[in-house]
């Protein structure tokens, strides 16, 4: 998944690969710190302060070996990312990598720490560093026959290209490699398939995406912990149905998914579903309904874990106000949108904004000229 949900998925993949240690020779001996450190990343996702406490308890030990220090620093960096301590997160992850490079440790351990570090640098916005680390993890895992670690690294690369760099075609190749590698391991990971399906939607490969989301829903039906994934998959199926013009069916899925995602406090899931709802209502000419939906996304994403949703909501509001014949209002939101996207030049529609603004200025002039003519 994306945003915080995606980070949790990547951490889970990496933790599983470390814990599974694909070959007997790669398994680490148990140590007094193995259990708490094994829990540290998952704890950090829900309680960064607890994660930092676990990590600090290990790091404060003078006799802590490298195999304890490294995951503690990695966990600390993940927690610091979540609470916004950017410089500290970068410093702690780099320190973990320096110790890793100078210590003779099992290759499974090494590959998965590299993947985890790539996740931190992805969240910090350093995509080139993240790619370097993910590729190193994938290469190491392939060379030493550690397939689950390779799957984790490939999934990280796929998600980075799909979400951060907005290159779904590149992401697709990584997703397919990861899924092909995972099949003989009998790891039917619901998050992996959801992310793959989401990327297929970006590529407009709707038939294949629909099949993937059906599989995701089937996998999640009997597991209460996967409710959020199921309702996200339903909302993505609504995107597909909307593209096919099957509006009634799409609306039914959204009416079911939106309140459930709200109940689960899944901000990103709800925001994405509401954006689809806005698109659907706009296509039906229900501009006021579309407006209310986009405005709710704007409120949801003001301080939340899905900043990209705010940009997407702004795009919708520009279109909605144009449809409502309020070009001046549309221009105001376009200017706000430009400021947001200037903060992240990787956003896919950045180059379109100046062109859009020029068109909007023209429409404002035409509208005001025609209004002046009518009044005389």
Short description:
By secondary structure, the chain is mainly alpha-helical. The chain has 18 helices and no strands.
Task: Give keywords.
single chain, 376 residues, mainly alpha, 78% helix, disordered N terminus
**What is the architecture of the domain at 1-23 and 40-203 at the second tier of CATH?**
Alpha Horseshoe
> Do you know the CATH topology of the domain at 1-23 and 40-203?
Serine Threonine Protein Phosphatase 5, Tetratricopeptide repeat
Q: What's the alpha carbon Rg, rounded to whole Å?
A: 23 Å
What's the N-to-C terminus distance? 57 Å
Describe the structure in your own words:
By secondary structure, the chain is mainly alpha-helical. It has a domain at about 1-25 and about 40-205: Alpha Horseshoe (Serine Threonine Protein Phosphatase 5, Tetratricopeptide repeat). It is about 80% helix and about 0% strand. It has helices at about 5-20, 35-45, 50-60, 65-80, 85-100, 105-125, 125-145, 145-165, 170-180, 190-200, 205-220, 225-245, 245-265, 265-285, 285-300, 305-325, 325-340, 350-375. Helix 12 packs antiparallel against helix 13 (about 245-265) and helix 17 runs antiparallel to helix 18 (about 350-375). The radius of gyration is 23 Å and the shape is globular.
Give the topology.
Layout: H1 3-20, H2 34-46, H3 48-59, H4 66-82, H5 86-101, H6 107-123, H7 127-143, H8 147-164, H9 168-182, H10 190-202, H11 206-220, H12 227-243, H13 247-263, H14 267-283, H15 287-300, H16 307-323, H17 327-342, H18 352-375
């Amino acid at each position: 998944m994306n945003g915080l949900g995606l980070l949790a998925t990547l951490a889970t993949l990496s933790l599983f690969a470390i814990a599974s240690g694909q070959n007997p020779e790669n398994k680490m001996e148990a140590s007094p710190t193995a259990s708490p450190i094994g829990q540290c990343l998952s704890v950090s996702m829900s309680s960064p302060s607890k994660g930092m406490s676990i990590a600090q308890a290990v790091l404060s030990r003078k006799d802590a070996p490298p195999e304890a220090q490294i995951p503690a620093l990695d966990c600390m960096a993940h927690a610091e990312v979540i609470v916004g301590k950017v410089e500290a997160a970068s410093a702690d992850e780099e320190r973990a990598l320096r110790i890793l490079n100078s210590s003779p440790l099992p290759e499974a351990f090494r590959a998965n720490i590299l993947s985890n570090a790539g996740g931190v640098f992805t969240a910090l916005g350093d995509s080139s560093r993240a790619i370097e680390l993910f590729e190193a993890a994938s290469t190491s895992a392939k060379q030493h026959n550690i397939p689950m670690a390779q799957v984790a690294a490939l999934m990280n690369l796929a998600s980075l290209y799909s979400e951060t760099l907005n290159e779904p075609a590149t992401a697709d190749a990584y997703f397919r490699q990861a899924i092909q590698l995972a099949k003989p391991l009998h790891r039917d990971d619901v998050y992996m398939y959801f992310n793959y399906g989401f990327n297929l939607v970006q590529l407009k490969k709707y038939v294949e995406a629909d099949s993937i989301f059906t599989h995701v829903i089937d996998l999640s039906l009997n597991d209460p912990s996967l409710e959020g994934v199921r309702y996200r998959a339903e909302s993505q199926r609504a995107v597909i149905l909307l593209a096919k013009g099957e509006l009634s069916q799409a609306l039914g899925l959204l009416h079911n998914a939106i309140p459930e995602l709200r109940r689960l406090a899944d901000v990103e899931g709800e925001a994405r579903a509401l954006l689809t709802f806005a698109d659907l209502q706009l296509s039906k000419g229900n501009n006021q309904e579309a407006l209310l939906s986009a405005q709710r996304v704007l409120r949801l994403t003001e301080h939340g874990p899905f900043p990209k949703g705010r940009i997407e909501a702004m795009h919708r509001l520009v279109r909605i106000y144009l449809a409502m014949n309020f070009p001046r209002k549309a221009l105001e939101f376009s200017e706000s949108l430009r400021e947001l996207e200037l903060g992240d030049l990787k956003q896919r529609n950045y180059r379109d904004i100046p062109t859009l603004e020029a068109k909007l200025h023209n429409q404002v002039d035409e509208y005001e000229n025609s209004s002046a003519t009518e009044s005389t």
